[in-house]
């Protein structure tokens, strides 16, 4: 009985661990995927953002590593030597100083050990000085790269989100159109059986219904692919469930933007990145000019020297020594390399100024194109708002007239097609104006991140 209980407990533990492993964490998926939640999820899980955050940490560690050269550098060294045969040196014959003869003499002891402690301090070094002056600039560059990637992710996720909900809305519109066509087909069939109309009416209804079903099937198939694209841009689990939620009225209220804003290239993150790069190039010019200056460092050494003919007694006698020193290294002639490298650095700095000029022109062009597209799409959207109300009213009236026998069924089909087309073009116009608004915000450098 005890063995059976132990076996049952072990099975429950294994099954529980399997469940806890197989069930994904609720933090990795979204319960309701609104646009804001999708963007926030992407900013926390997108691989590009994670890489940029790691790049920031790498940059910080790199800066600290470079700045560590300003601190004293302390090292230790230990050596142990045993001469298998002692060295021999030639000395003058002290018994006969006038003789040119040299007498071989064995020098040293068989066992030697050395323990050395060294300390060095950079007083002036252009590499360390460059690291010190550009530390904050490198931090800014890593931070700006992260911001730039966040802006890209925000814009891409927003556009993919709008594209997905547009397709979902198309499916909803076609669902409503299918319901209306099914009702019209039933009415046309009943009137044909009653002898009020000929067979062409219900055949036209059947053709229109089949076409609408085919369009819905096509739109429904596109939803899966567009949802997968949105997941990829968000860094979302590929097999995770993503239920997109949105409010059409809220989207309609978000189409407007202040069109009187003036373009400021310096507000663009790309411009700020170029400015940072230019600051690094200026520092590089100074770095190459410092090549004419000497490198200065101070040092101190303390040595414990142990010597003895008997290995067992090696560390019984110590002959320490110490020293301090100052080293000045001055490059005198390097074949003109320093002149050429200084000139290259100056030319690179001049080139970066043209990059800024080109970016300013590009930003101005992007803004004007984006604003023109936005205004055109907004005008189309406003016109289609009115058309949508008119198409609904026309379809309702013609449907009533057809049931009363005043209108032909062809008029009903035309009204249905006009209503469906107007609804589809209206929401497509809403999508276009939202996307063009994003382009304007990006051109202005006002995309939230």
Automatic annotation (TrEMBL):
Native species: Larkinella punicea
One of the Pfam families matching this protein, by short name: OEP
Keywords in alphabetical order: Cell outer membrane, Coiled coil, Membrane, Signal, Transmembrane, Transmembrane beta strand, Transport
Key word rRNA-binding present: no
Protein's name according to its UniProt entry: TolC family protein
Subcellular location: Cell outer membrane
Family assignment from sequence similarity: Belongs to the outer membrane factor (OMF) (TC 1.B.17) family.
Signal sequence range: 1-22
């Amino acid at each position: 009985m005890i063995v059976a209980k132990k076996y049952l407990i072990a099975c429950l533990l294994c099954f529980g661990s399997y469940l806890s492993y197989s069930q994904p964490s609720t933090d990795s998926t979204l319960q309701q995927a609104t646009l804001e939640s999708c963007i926030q999820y992407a900013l926390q899980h997108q691989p590009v953002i994670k890489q940029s955050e790691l790049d920031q940490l790498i940059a910080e560690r790199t800066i600290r590593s470079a700045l560590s050269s300003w601190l004293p550098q302390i090292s230790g060294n230990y050596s142990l030597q045993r001469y298998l045969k002692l060295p021999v040196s030639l000395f003058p014959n002290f018994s006969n100083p006038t003789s040119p003869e040299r007498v071989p003499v064995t020098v040293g002891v068989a066992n030697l050990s050395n323990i050395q402690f060294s300390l060095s301090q950079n007083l002036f070094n252009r590499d360390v000085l460059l690291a010190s002056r550009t530390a904050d600039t490198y931090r800014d560059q890593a931070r700006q790269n992260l911001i730039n990637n966040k802006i890209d992710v925000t814009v891409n996720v927003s556009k993919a989100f709008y594209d997905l909900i547009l397709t979902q809305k198309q499916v909803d519109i076609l669902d409503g159109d299918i319901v209306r066509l099914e009702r019209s087909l039933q009415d046309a069939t009943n009137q044909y059986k009653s002898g009020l109309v000929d067979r062409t009416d219900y055949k036209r209804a059947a053709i229109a219904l089949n076409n609408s079903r085919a369009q819905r099937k096509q739109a429904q198939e596109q939803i899966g692919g567009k949802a997968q694209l949105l997941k990829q841009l968000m860094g979302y689990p590929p097999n995770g469930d993503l239920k997109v939620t949105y409010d059409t009225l809220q989207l309609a209220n978000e189409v407007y933007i202040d069109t009187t804003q003036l373009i400021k290239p310096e507000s663009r993150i790309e411009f700020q990145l170029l400015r940072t790069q230019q600051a690094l190039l200026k520092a590089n010019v100074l770095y190459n000019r410092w090549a004419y200056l000497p490198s200065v460092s101070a040092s101190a050494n303390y040595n414990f020297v142990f010597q003895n003919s008997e290995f067992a007694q090696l560390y019984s006698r110590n002959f320490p020594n110490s020293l301090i020193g100052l080293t000045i290294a001055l490059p005198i002639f390097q074949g003109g390399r320093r002149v050429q490298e200084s000139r290259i650095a100056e030319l690179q700095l001049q080139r970066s100024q043209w990059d800024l000029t080109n970016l300013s022109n590009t930003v101005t062009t992007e803004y004007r194109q984006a604003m023109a597209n936005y205004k055109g799409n907004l005008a189309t959207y406003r016109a289609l708002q009115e058309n949508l109300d008119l198409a609904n009213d026309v379809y309702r009236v013609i449907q009533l007239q057809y049931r009363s026998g005043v209108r032909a069924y062809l008029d009903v089909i035309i009204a249905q097609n006009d209503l469906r087309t107007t609804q589809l073009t209206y929401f497509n116009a809403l999508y276009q104006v939202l996307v063009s608004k994003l382009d304007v915000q990006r051109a202005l450098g006002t995309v939230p991140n």
